[in-house]
Amino acid sequence: MPVISASQIKPEYDVIVVGSGAAGGQSAYTLTMEGVKVLMLEAGRSYEPVTETPMFKVGSSAPLRGASTTDKPFGFYDSTVDGGWTVPGEPYVRASAGRENQFKWWRPRMMGGRTNHWGRLSFRNGPYDFKPRSRDGLGFDWPIDYDDLAPYYDRVEQLIGVYGNNDGMENTPDSPPGVLLPPPAPRVGERLVQQRAQKIGVPIVAAHRAVLTQRQDAENIPAKLHPNNPKAQRILRESMQSRAACFWATPCGRGCSIKATYQSTTVHLPPALATGNLDIVPNAMAREVTTDSNGKATGVIFIDKTTGDEVQARGRAVVLAAGAAETVRIMLNSRSVVFPDGIANSTGLVGKYLMDTVGAKLGGQIPLLENLPPLNEDGAGGAHVYAPWWLYQQQLAGKLNFARGYHIEFNTARGQPKLDVGAGLEPLNGGGTWGRKFKDDVRRYHGSFISFSGRGEMIPNEGTFCELDPVVKDKWGIPVLRFHWQWSDHELNQVVHMQQTFKQLIEACGGKVWGEQPAAHGRDAIHPGGDIIHEVGGAIMGSTRRKSVVDAWSRTWDVPNLYLTDGAPFVSNADKNPTLSLMALAWRASDHLIGELSRGNI
Amino acid sequence: MNTSIPSSDRLDRRTALKWMATAAASAALLPRSRAQPAPEPGVSVVTAPMGDGYGTDPDLLRDYAPGDLWPLTFNDHQRRTAAVLCGLIIPADNRSPSAADLKVHDFIDEWISSPYPAQAGDRALILQGLEQLDGLAQKRYGSPFADLRINAQATLCDKLAKMEEMDAATESALSASDREFRQLQRAFRRFRDLTAGGFFTTPEGLKDIGYLGNVPLAAFPAPPADLLKRLGLPVE
């Protein structure tokens, strides 16, 4: 089994990949399928979804009925182990106590990273999203455009399996025919919102999520993804045949033992391992990229967490895919004579222009949805529909007081009751009941609540960045990050607009805002930085080496054999969740790296 | 080639001790140091809390019962009172047993005994609430709550269940005994929330509320046409 211990690594590899999530998984997959010898380093433990996923457990089997705790921030059965908002022995630093200056850093610390518990929403960035500065004068343009990445979106969607429709929406690209899997039928509450949203001009269409609504076409997809490579085709065919279609039960955040959802640990890593070209060392905390006297990367020094030893892994090239901020941290800690301020940081831009997704929410109670007959609404374990951003033209015409868009996700919550199922009913039942009346009240109102969440674009700014803290180190003596965070009026005005839209949607469904009311000022509605766990940027891509850290191939300008394939090179962070784009970019970067290796340039 | 250096030789102990001390003070300011520039005001270190809970990598596949992971709190009398309350708040009917039948009071004990900060406030609220409830029962009827006749218990529940909306200024102007009664109402409300949550997350509770999921299906069907019609939604 090629999941090995640090003492078993080979003297030399073609490529060292740091990280095993969406970016590391995709990089290792693409490289090893083409015969490249890869060593992957993962800071957390090994993890096997097929045997470890608590698929059908109900709340009463868990401590505290599965409620979230500091050990398991997304609840007991969330698939994340050993990671979270805090990690024992691994502190980080906030530069300011200001309420609007907070950044929360989610670190998964497990094989497969965040892909085990993620929401599986998989949206393509559109043509506008690659040229935002050309459109509104803010932020930066990418050096690539949509057409450069479109073929890689096609490939990733076919590899991982994504459901959705081609709705022809503005700046929300369709996929080629036959690429997407059919979306699941909308639930009752989703249909109600869809119908009523028309009144206020909000389009509700099928969501795109990485869940197999049917078995993948294992006969034809492998040849499309790996032409002229029979071995890769065979391995992928077997991998696809091992994945079952969704059986419409159990929350995706727990992970999926039948491999119906995309997780790096079920989709990327098994075929990569099957090539025989991949070794993975878990519990390997990467500290720095090593370089030779010419400034070329020679490998990675990591701490073997099982022994505390420091180990040097050597490779012809290095791919950092540790998660944007962790990648920045490794780069800043890779100091040498050639790179006194950190590897590939001759511009001083490493750590700059960090971004998250803008988030705000609002809940509503809808009388029409009370006392519905029993109905299994588990579905695909997440959204079946959503609203893509719909006001591009109004925004372009200057009619809105924020420059970038947001999409709407919502949950009609007729799922498995959680601990809060009977809480807070007092405004509905005359101030509070008990006994038979209360028992009936809980039954009546369960399923009548809708929660709306906005996911919007944050524009990169000078005040949002990370750097090494001059004092604090982690338990292995590695300097930690200090985060600076700032919102601009674009984000703060955007969340006000989100909440007003949600209020309109709730009222259009005949309901009332439930709980917190819409805020007058964005600072009272916006989630803290990092809270949406879409941290990207920090080593942005560009067309000139003076103004960016990586080139259009995700390769650092300063070090030709160092590639960044996680969110770090993101130049902008469109409202579309970053994972699909990040995988498409990782595939494209890995193709480029294969070319460089085979041409002998590296 | 592996070059192995024991990490302890490389660890900057002074620094490590520093952030550990900071952790103990829970995100306090970094201590000042001559060797390092003094951090700006407002800088804080985010560290993991020291936990006595189930840890960051618990076994997700086994079934847990209250008391398995940390010691419970209720003494016999408290447990009996909590059970009576659970039975009153969610009684048995033709669809399901009572919350007391399903031992939801043991879950509430687990909850208030939890080592995690999110539950810490509920511990004091509920333990004090049980005491106040007995105090009230004694004063009115001369017996602890659990020993009262059902009619007396119901009278007290009626008084406790309906909590008047009140702003902070009005509340602070209340007499001490009224404030204490309001505190008891607050405890009752929290106890009720936990009873409902504890009850409807059991297999019996899931069935009661009409939750039909958590079973594998060959296909996910569209909602029934008659339901869609009833709600005025288009039928495909």
TrEMBL record, chain A:
Domain Glucose-methanol-choline oxidoreductase N-terminal intervals: 252-334
Swiss-Prot/TrEMBL keywords: FAD, Flavoprotein, Oxidoreductase
Coiled-coil ranges per UniProt: none
Pfam families: GMC_oxred_C, GMC_oxred_N
Domain Glucose-methanol-choline oxidoreductase C-terminal: 469-586
Matches recorded under SUPFAM superfamilies: FAD-linked reductases, C-terminal domain (SSF54373), FAD/NAD(P)-binding domain (SSF51905)
GO molecular function: flavin adenine dinucleotide binding; oxidoreductase activity, acting on CH-OH group of donors
Signal peptide range in chain numbering: none
Cofactor(s) the protein needs: FAD
Family assignment from sequence similarity: Belongs to the GMC oxidoreductase family.
Protein name per the record: GMC family oxidoreductase
TrEMBL record, chain B:
InterPro entries reported in the protein's UniProt record: Gluconate_2DH_su3, TAT_signal
Pfam families: Gluconate_2-dh3 (PF13618)
Name used for this protein in its record: Gluconate 2-dehydrogenase subunit 3 family protein
